[in-house]
């Protein structure tokens, strides 16, 4: 008997749920039918917007009710809202429609789809329910916010800061200044801060800027601090504010760290850095060979550098990701492999590159040498290459410069001819 009664109860529940779903469908159909009579040119996307607004209003009215029938009805409206949202997203994907870009304080906010997890609005600090709320994301720094909250954004976009001509990374390890220096307020939103009151007022230190922030502006995100890597080779992630996190994430692959200028002693004391500096210097010489070599251009040999293309543009600048790889030892291994490929092409595989080699004119050794060979020196005027020992023994005398000076035309004073 118990099994029969439970089956009957289950069937009644299913029937009630089906009736509620039909009621929701009929209600949506009626309001759309009325809208079509008022505006025959109504598009399907506009119809979906009307139906979504109806479902939201009904859910708002039923939100405080705990009765069983109304809970089932509320679930019916929620299911219909999900169905309409997915249909609207499908139409947007098929049409390839681009929503209007909202620009606020350097941000470029673009409307986002309803798929994926529900993020947190970084303005009002509430959850963005994608099926219920329109939301936007900055296409540069990634700041997420409700569509209605975009006008209240107070943080400057990290891309606007990075693209300024006077932008430079903070290369000094920041010292804590204390809350008194900030008048006991959050540096970004001016929210009151205190160590003694509730956790909502707890100040959080940003290790990049050395300033205190509230929990809304500091989510305990952890990033590698440029100054600590530069001075101590310390790549351990540390807590930073949201603004600093977005800034550091944006410049992670940009060559902005002048290692030799900012901390030259680090290169002298660290053998790995010393070797990387030598390899980068060799890359600049090798680039001259590759530019004049048709085979190297066809092979696109410089693409071996991939994300390190700035290595053939300067010998000093590094990115934050490269600094982390220096600490872990990955960068040196990668550079050694690329260096071997380049050396093999110039010295063994390519006759054109080998034809641009040098022979030391200061000794009887006829073995060819290159600017990137070991134990060689280069004349700073004509760029001729000699053995380092030979060049120093001859007091840096350059036969090539001497020949050029002899061939140079001699200016004769016209008065002397007469």
Can you offer a commentary on this structure?
By secondary structure, this protein is α+β, with helices and mostly antiparallel strands. The chain folds into five domains: 9-95; 102-158, Wheat Germ Agglutinin (Isolectin 2), domain 1, CATH 3.30.60; 173-250, Zinc/RING finger domain, C3HC4 (zinc finger) (Herpes Virus-1, 2-Layer Sandwich), CATH 3.30.40; 258-356; 359-407. The protein is 46% helix and 9% strand. The chain contains 16 helices and 14 strands. It has helices spanning 2-38, 44-62, 68-95, 158-162, 226-232, 242-250, 259-262, 264-269, 271-291, 294-299, 320-328, 330-349, 351-354, 388-393, 399-407, 414-417; strands at 102-104, 107-111, 135-138, 144-146, 204-205, 212-213, 221-223, 238-240, 257-258, 317-318, 358-359, 368-369, 376-378, 385-387. It has a four-stranded antiparallel sheet with strand order 1-2-3-4. β11 (358-359) and β12 form a beta hairpin. α1 (2-38) crosses α2 (44-62), α1 (2-38) crosses α3 and α2 (44-62) runs antiparallel to α3. The longest helix is centred in the N-terminal third of the chain and has 37 residues, at 2-38. The model is unreliable at 1-17 (pLDDT under 50). InterPro entries: C1-like_sf (IPR046349), DEF8 (IPR051366), DEF8_C1 (IPR047983), Multihaem_cyt_sf (IPR036280), PKC_DAG/PE (IPR002219), RH_dom (IPR025258). Pfam families: C1_1, RH_dom. Belongs to the DEF8 family. One of its GO terms (molecular function) is zinc ion binding. This is C1 domain containing protein.
